[in-house]
Amino acid sequence: MSNTEYLSTAAIRRQMLAEFWFYFRQNRGAVAGLVVFILLVLTAVFALLLAPHDPTTQYRDAFLLPPVWQDGGRAEFLLGTDAVGRDMLSRLIFGAQYSLFIGIVVVAIALVGGVIIGLIAGFFRGWVDAVIMRVMDVILAFPSLLLALVLVAVLGPGLTNAMIAIAIVYQPHFARLTRAAVMGEMRREYVTAARVAGAGNLRLMFKTILPNCLGPLIVQATLSFSSAVLDSAALGFLGMGAQPPSPEWGTMLAEAREFILRAWWVVTLPGLAILVSVLAINMMGDGLRDALDPKLKRS
Amino acid sequence: MVRFLLSKLLYLVPTFLGITIVAFGFVRILPGDPVLLMAGERGVSPERHAELSAQLGFDKPIVMQYLDFLGRLLQGDLGNSLVTKKPVLTEFLALFPATVELGLCAIVIATLVGVPVGVLAAIKRGSWFDQVSMTSALVGFSMPIFWWGLLLIIFFSGYLGWTPVSGRISLMYFFPQGTGFMLIDSLMSGQDGAFASAVSHLILPSIVLATIPLAVIARQTRSAMLEVMGEDYVRTARAKGMPRRRVIGVHALRNAMIPVVTTIGLQIGVLIAGAILTETIFSWPGIGKWMIDSISRRDYPVVQSGLLLIAGMVMVVNLLVDLTYGLINPRIRAT
Hints:
The complex is a heterodimer.
Chain A: H1 3-26, H2 28-45, H3 47-50, H4 88-124, H5 126-141, H6 144-155, H7 159-186, H8 189-196, H9 201-209, H10 214-237, H11 249-256, H12 264-292, H13 294-298
Helix pairs in contact in A: 1-12, 2-4, 2-12, 4-5, 4-7, 4-10, 4-12, 5-7, 6-7, 7-10, 8-9, 10-11, 10-12, 11-12
Chain B: H1 2-28, H2 34-39, H3 46-56, H4 62-74, H5 88-123, H6 128-141, H7 145-159, H8 182-189, H9 194-229, H10 232-239, H11 244-281, H12 287-296, H13 300-328, H14 330-334
Helix pairs in contact in B: 1-13, 5-6, 5-9, 5-11, 6-9, 7-9, 7-11, 8-9, 9-11, 10-11, 11-12, 11-13, 12-13
């Protein structure tokens, strides 16, 4: 590859990025979502430095202390403590690690699996496609949380199994999306050209077609990320996800349920953390959709 | 239309068979011996084990077991609960009205609020109403509903003392469960205050369950309205001098409703997933809570059949949505 050619691809890429940012920036909510999301990532990465206490240490002299601004609050526990005397703020900070980790793992498994399945179905069509899509239909026939719950019941409760279960449940969405995009692209001339030039099936699938189907997949990945955070928190809340004493937000809520009428902070704060993270990711997803969907760009 | 219906029905057969395979396979892939699992902690003697294996058909080849399962299913035999020993179908039918009542109330709230909000937001695009309502919709869409339920309990039940915390009706009232729908039964019982009690029990769970569908419906209505309002026929209607209200109400809204009806129908899966959480929080004696309790009690026949019944129900509702879609949008039937 010559030097000029290399520069021109780089320039095109830069231009695409600039265009993407132009449309993304138009949506103020999306930018706000991005800022919150970056803060969340920083919190998760620097949790050890940020958290004032260990998230699992129990302070025997500080059960259900209210936040510092309320009567009875103590300065060392800014957001109060839970029923066994653990610092709420530290648990919330470490909880960010769980949520991001769950989101990344679930989306990675669902995306990779779904894309491969969808590529195969859309590329080969015929009976392969029919079988794959019927299997996907079966998975989609079950309400996602219910199927995840049953899968966790089979695999055994715990964070890893919860993530696998949620990823399996999300997979069909990626598969369907990829298949539809691949079928659209297959009719294009550049694919025929590549085939005539002697490209093999694998090269056609992954290098020629896949990069042109990425737009909707990125949007779906963002939406799945926020759903994964919600669903894993729901599983944790039902006792089927991360197990105590992990500071996962849903699990924290489950532990806090019996104190709802006595200590508002143990219930309100973990839920607020879930809501803010999910909202930020969804706002970002809206902006991504606006920036990546050519149909919407015109309006 | 008949051909459309038949093709849709045919399409369901492999999916339904797939669902039965999942439900059947679920108990088989559980680690360990199913008979021992069902016997629980007490265990069984080897003779009783062999007897139970033969009785439950576990000594046959797996394909035969599946065909037996399918045969029993077609006869309406879904097995018995390990805990209550009652037929699963009887339990399901007893609890089903509670979930339907809750789900219907939720979808009615979501539609009655979501559609007007979406239409108004589209008409007044860019206004403060549009911005506030769409931001609220996004918040509602992102809401962990199990937490939302707890917040409402803290505020309305704990702080204001307006609504009860759990159940379907106050324990003060006794009357026969004619229809299984508490609103109707309490009204027919003629007892003073029974209906009001049923309503006050229903209101918070319905709001919680309605939250996500409401957000989805409002957003979908808005974008469908915006799309339709840019169409040529709407511009033509306006150019003819037709009053704005009539253009919006007749020309735009009717066409915008097509995707919205589908969206409303597709919320059934969301509602069931939501019902699992909502019913757990409010101790609402419905299918969702029944499934959760059965999963934690390891009552596998209930989980197996419950999965099957719920997935079957979702499938039937989706079929109805497809058919409605075909009815209101003739273009779909042709394809």
